[in-house]
Design brief:
The protein is of the alpha+beta class. It has eight helices and 32 strands. It is 28% helix and 31% strand. The strands form nine sheets. A four-stranded antiparallel sheet has the order 9-32-31-30, with no helix packed on it. The chain has a four-stranded antiparallel sheet with strand order 10-11-12-13, with no helix packed on it. α5 (115-163) runs antiparallel to α6 and α6 runs antiparallel to α7. Residues 2-52, 62-104 form the B box-type domain.
Length: 548
């Protein structure tokens, strides 16, 4: 590891160059030249690169990124059934039957606003507050014991003065007993204070770590850290409850006898101690999982018509997608990509070299990709400033497009699908049937496609093996909800149906009475509260509220 003042990549090349920035995803310090190189790689554009002077690298980040079972694999998936982070290799072995295994960037989306983040921080704060109160209580008890000793000493002296020399021996015994009790309880309480301080410091360290990650870390790091700290917080809760139950309010009292007989020295008085439970309480709060844990059991019951998005004149559209900052992208018969702010208000349009058809947003990034059938190409879009980026030749008439975690899948003419990495490099070719694939959805968890061609909806594996095929009406869009159910339009039947991932169950969700008329492209918004449908033969955009 390089020193705090030098660039890590340059140090590996035996160069000593001062670092000015820090990438929290790579966990490396970077010099200006390496920062520029970092920004040029598309796979690294989503990384958090921050000013080195604004962070404290001495705060430990304990969140793991590597799978314990598969040391060469990243922990990049989250199983909602088991509530654990896992790697790609774990899925077919440990989570094959799980209903929902999500890519980590989906599961950790908005994690800083999640119930898990709130609960972990609240629990840490509650534990710290309780420990501080307990520490104050112990200190108060020590002070009270010290004051009590002074008072009792005076009481003993008053009795002593009345009994003169006859009580000298008894006085010594009582003083000795008092000191012994004092020492015993001081020792116990000081040991309790040390244990409290140890747990308190540990929790403060975790608090600093999460605060650091909140400001400077990636969602993946926060997600890892939160799940890693759940068990340690539960252990801290057990320790705090144990410390509270073993702590007692200790007072020493002296019972002075008013009537003293010379022959009844035992009536001189005796010391007594009162032990009662500590008044500090800690109410354990069950840590919640991230919001997806409750979302996985939600099921869309019905849709209710919300509104119609006012489209720009002549904006007849094929397909749509929604960016991470809630902007709606619409492809068109024209060589344009239309942009609507907040999914409702026209903002701008991007001039393309030819008409576009399919569009998809790469999850967790500020990048989108559209298909250009006439040019047999795909066009990358920078959604941060709504400008064109690279254009890549795929060498076949392409229509539908979808993405996995680190792959782009382009479908089109004669059942052709080409697989690309997120930089646009073509990796492989898949063939499925002979129909043109106009819409395409990829299930990353089960590694299968849902492709729409004319009058057909097919599910098939990565190698092109057909899983099942279903007759449908015409050509229309396909999308998935967060449970993995498939929604597809009936162009000639003017309806939208929902199908289970295995193709066994199918039900009509929207029909002509609900305002559906020759639907085409469709998609859910980012939080799955609304369904957007290109309607009325490409000419309008209908919005429906999802009711759970």
């Amino acid at each position: 590891m390089a020193t705090a003042s030098f660039c890590d990549p340059c140090t590996k090349a035996n160069l000593s160059v001062s670092a000015t920035r820090y990438c929290s995803d790579c966990e490396e310090r970077l010099c200006p030249a390496c920062v520029e190189s970092h920004a040029r790689f598309k796979a690294l554009t989503s990384h958090h690169v921050i000013d080195l002077s604004s962070i404290d690298l001495n705060i430990p980040v304990s969140a793991k990124k590597i799978c314990n079972l598969h040391p060469d694999m990243l922990l990049d998936y989250y199983c909602t059934d088991h509530g654990i982070v896992c790697c790609r290799a774990c899925i077919p072995k440990e989570h094959r039957k799980c209903e929902k295994v999500l890519p980590l960037e989906h599961a950790s989306k908005d994690v800083k606003k999640s119930a898990l983040f709130t609960d972990v921080m609240q629990d840490i704060n509650q534990l710290i507050t309780t420990l501080k109160h307990l520490q104050d209580n112990r200190e108060s008890n020590l002070q009270r014991l010290s004051k009590t000793k002074s008072v009792i000493t005076e009481q003993i002296s008053e009795v002593k003065s009345r009994l003169l020399k006859q009580i000298d021996d008894l006085e010594r015994d009582l003083q000795s007993e008092l000191s012994s009790l004092q020492r015993k309880h001081e020792t116990e309480i000081n040991m309790q204070k040390e244990e409290i301080t140890k747990v308190l410091n540990s929790l403060k360290t975790k608090q600093k770590e999460i605060d650091f990650l909140k400001d400077h870390g990636s969602n993946n790091q926060i997600f890892h850290a939160l799940h890693q700290h759940v068990s340690s917080i539960k252990s801290a809760e057990v320790n705090v409850q144990k410390m509270i139950s073993s702590s007692h309010e200790i007072d020493i009292a002296f019972d002075a006898k008013k009537a003293i007989r010379m022959i009844r020295i035992d009536l001189f008085g005796q010391l007594s101690e009162t032990v009662k439970p500590c008044q500090i309480q800690y109410n354990s709060k069950k840590i919640q999982q991230a919001q997806i844990m409750t979302e996985k059991i939600k099921r869309i019951v019905k849709f209710e018509k919300d509104t119609e998005v006012k489209l720009k004149a002549g904006c007849d559209s094929f397909e749509l997608a929604i960016t991470v900052d809630n902007k709606l992208l619409l492809t068109s018969f024209k060589p344009k990509l239309y942009v609507y702010r907040d999914c409702k208000d026209y903002e701008t349009e991007i001039i393309l070299s030819s008409p576009s058809y399919g569009v998809v947003v790469i999850p967790g990034t500020e990048r989108a990709v559209v298909t250009l059938p006439d040019e047999e190409s795909i066009q990358f879009i920078n959604t941060a400033n709504m400008t064109k980026d690279d254009k890549v030749k795929v060498s076949f008439t392409c229509y539908g497009i979808t993405v996995g975690r680190d792959r782009i899948y382009v479908g089109g003419k004669d059942g052709t699908i080409k697989v690309l990495d997120t930089n646009g490099t073509i990796l492989k070719l898949i063939k499925q049937g002979s129909g043109d694939i106009t819409f395409l959805v990829y299930d990353d968890c089960h590694e299968q496609f849902f492709g729409r061609s004319h009058n057909k909806l097919q599910c098939f594996k990565l190698d092109g093996t057909l899983v099942y095929s279903k007759d449908v009406s015409g050509t229309a869009g396909v999308t998935r909800d967060r449970q993995g159910n498939i929604y597809y339009g009936g162009y000639y039947t003017s309806n939208i149906q929902r199908m289970s991932p295995d193709g066994e169950n199918c039900e009509e969700m929207l029909k002509e009475d609900d305002g559906i008329d020759s639907p085409y492209g469709m998609c859910f918004n980012n939080d799955f509260t609304k369904l957007f449908v290109i309607n009325n033969s490409y000419t309008s955009l209908s919005v429906y509220n999802c009711r759970y």
